[in-house]
Amino acid sequence: MPVDDRARILAHHGDDFGKVDFDNAEGQAIATVWATPTGDGWTLHITEHGAPLALARRQPPACAS
Question: What is the reported pTM?
Answer without folding.
Answer: 0.60
